[in-house]
Amino acid sequence: MEPELLHYEKIVEDALRGVVRTALEQVATFGLPEGHGLYITFLTAGPGVVIPARLARTYPEEMTIVLEHQFWNLEVGEAQFSVELSFNRRQERLEVPFDCITSFADPSVPFGLKFELTAAAETAEEDEAGAGPGDAPPAASNEDAGGGPEADGAANGPADEAAQTGEVVNLDSFRKKR
User: Fold this and answer.
1) Distance of alpha carbon 124 from alpha carbon 146, whole angstroms
2) Tell me, what's the pLDDT at 157?
3) In this structure, what are the phi and psi dihedrals at residue 72, rounded to the nearest 5 degrees?
4) 77-110 b/e (C-beta count within 10 Å ≥ 16 → b)
5) What residue ranges do the domains of the chain occupy?
6) Which of 28, 119, 142, 151 lies at a 20 to 30 A Cα distance from 67?
7) Separation CA 85–CA 88 (nearest Å)
8) Which of 47, 63, 67 lies closest to 55 in space, CA to CA?
């Protein structure tokens, strides 16, 4: 019998999800520092995700929310976070497990993370894979997700380019130039 291998990729993924958890805990405790905006993309049909049915219909696979100007009641647990955002002038509560987050960015610093799917999230994505080609969900507008109009396009940095092209991004591209 072969000894169990150390799965460093999973260890790193878990540690980076801890970065997201810690950042959200700090925002929940102290508020969002001036100028910051958190862009969080997650699987809407992932296990444990709770969103209103109309949002699930509009964004059947993935959704990006922005925690910037208008968000309320941010609560952070060990395995998930919940927050209330305004969608078309209606305040809605969302619950998102950290394992369902596919990317996290704060373009103001700039900082971004892209996550591999966990086994549970991959199962949910495979269930959604039955949709035909061209059934990709529309992107959530920043205004709908609680961000202001000035936030439009703010995330079009290195992380977004990598997501579109599938290229590996050097983390140095997110660090401030000195």
Assistant:
1) 26
2) 41
3) -135, 155
4) eeebbebebbbeeeeeebebbbbbbbbbbbbeeb
5) 8-174
6) 119
7) 10
8) 63
What's the token pair of residue 178? 């000195």
Taking CA atoms, 51 is separated from 8, 55, 163, 177, in Å, by 32, 7, 24, 39
Cβ neighbourhood burial of 137 (10 Å; 0-12, 13-18, 19+): middle
Domain topology for 8-174? SH3 type barrels. (2.30.30)
Rounded Cα distance, 11 and 30, in Å = 29
Q: Give average pLDDT by consecutive 10-residue segment, the chain, 178 residues.
A: 81 95 98 95 97 95 95 97 94 97 95 80 54 41 39 38 45 56
Q: What residue type is 157 in one-letter code?
A: G
Specify the pTM: 0.68
pLDDT at 129: 52
Q: From 3, 40, 26, select the one nearest 145 (Cα to Cα).
A: 40
